[in-house]
């Protein structure tokens, strides 16, 4: 009887030792995988894949043990022969790319904050498509939640202003940088209580014009007035008011900034653009464009360059695109040819 019990205990001990060894191997492989996942980056990474299976230790084609991880394609390939060993891999690295002062990665979840939204994009919302019960109750909760997002006068002001700003940005085909700069200027005006007693539409149009000047994507007052509800005179008045009260650091607009866009609208070639920019630089060196409207100087330079290079455009065509009169083009053209001794 004792011998039977001893044999059973020996068998149990051997089984336990086998289980312990297998658990140790599993833990060792898990630590290896975790160590490899910590070293993974969002770009290309070099890693040696190790596992209990002999087939995954070496490349089945060339026998190499050096592998490359490409998270752009989600593949693991051999560095020697280029054989793809694994596809659709999972990226275990942090989702964010920001790094604090200690060198630690800062994860980021959800959409980033946006200054172009009245709540900076921090509010939440939910849909009713997947709800099967109490849809009326959830619809009331959703309506109350939307109302709470614009509960105060400041939120209502920003919501209306930024909705008009997005419409202006879309109509003028302006980039995101201009949108962010215009929103920042309007927020500063609202913080200093400059909006009280003034039209929101006029102030947001003036902020957009100032943002275009800051970002060197100039638009004329006429172009903004065409897509806005205000007149050219009223937008210019509010722009001067914002520039004075907020002390905006805006450099004078250069005619060179208008040349590429106007040339594209007139379907002129790149040699005409280069020639026009050279003429404007010469005028600037001699001080002949001080106090002149940049759009008028750009129109005269394009008119002269198109005539010289055989891509003639009439004064009427250029005036309709640039937004100046034909008299302005003729006047600037005469001043330009006289100042530079052009034929």
UniProtKB/TrEMBL annotation:
Keyword field contains Cell inner membrane: no
SMART domains documented for this protein: CYCLIN
Biased composition (Low complexity): 10-22
GO biological process: transcription preinitiation complex assembly
Sequence repeats: 163-246, 257-338
Gene3D superfamilies: 1.10.472.170, Cyclin-like
GO molecular function: DNA-binding transcription factor activity; TBP-class protein binding; translation initiation factor activity; zinc ion binding
Pfam family, one: Zn_Ribbon_TF
Residue span of region Disordered: 1-33
UniProt keyword list: Metal-binding, Repeat, Transcription, Transcription regulation, Zinc, Zinc-finger
CDD domains found in the cross-reference section: CYCLIN_TFIIB_archaea_like_rpt2
GO CC annotation terms, alphabetical: transcription preinitiation complex
Span of domain TFIIB-type: 55-86
Binding site for Zn(2+): 59, 62, 78, 81
Family: Belongs to the TFIIB family.
Role, per record: Stabilizes TBP binding to an archaeal box-A promoter. Also responsible for recruiting RNA polymerase II to the pre-initiation complex (DNA-TBP-TFIIB).
HAMAP family xref list: TF2B_arch
Record-given protein name: Transcription initiation factor IIB
Organism: Methanobrevibacter ruminantium (strain ATCC 35063 / DSM 1093 / JCM 13430 / OCM 146 / M1)
């Amino acid at each position: 009887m004792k011998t039977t019990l001893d044999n059973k205990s020996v068998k149990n001990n051997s089984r336990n030792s086998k289980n312990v060894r297998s658990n140790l191997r599993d833990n060792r492989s898990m630590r290896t995988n975790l160590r490899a996942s910590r070293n993974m980056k969002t770009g290309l990474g070099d890693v040696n894949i190790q596992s209990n299976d002999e087939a995954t230790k070496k490349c089945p084609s060339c026998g190499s043990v050096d592998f490359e991880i490409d998270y752009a394609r989600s593949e693991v390939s051999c560095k020697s022969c280029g054989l793809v060993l694994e596809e659709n891999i999972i990226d275990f690295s942090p989702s964010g790319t920001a790094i604090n002062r200690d060198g630690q990665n800062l994860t980021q979840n959800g959409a980033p904050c946006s200054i172009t939204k009245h709540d900076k994009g921090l509010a939440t919302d939910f849909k009713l498509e997947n709800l099967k019960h109490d849809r009326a109750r959830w619809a009331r909760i959703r309506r109350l939640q939307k109302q709470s997002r614009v509960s105060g006068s400041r939120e209502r002001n920003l919501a209306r202003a930024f909705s008009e700003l997005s419409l202006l940005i879309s109509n003028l085909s302006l980039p995101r940088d201009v949108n962010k700069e215009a929103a920042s200027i309007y927020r500063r005006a609202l913080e200093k209580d400059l909006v009280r007693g003034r039209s929101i539409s006029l102030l947001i149009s003036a902020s957009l014009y100032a943002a275009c000047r800051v970002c060197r994507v100039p638009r004329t007052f006429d172009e903004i007035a065409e897509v806005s509800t205000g007149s050219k005179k009223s937008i210019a008045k509010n722009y001067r008011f914002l520039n004075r009260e907020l002390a905006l650091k805006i450099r004078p607009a250069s005619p060179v900034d208008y040349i590429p866009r106007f040339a594209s609208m007139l379907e002129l070639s790149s040699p005409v653009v280069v020639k026009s920019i050279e003429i404007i630089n010469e005028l600037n060196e001699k001080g002949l464009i001080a106090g002149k409207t940049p759009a008028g100087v750009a129109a005269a330079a394009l008119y002269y360059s198109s005539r010289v290079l055989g891509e003639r455009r009439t004064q009427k065509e250029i005036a309709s695109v640039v937004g100046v009169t034909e008299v302005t083009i003729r006047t600037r053209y005469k001043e330009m040819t006289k100042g530079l001794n052009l034929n």
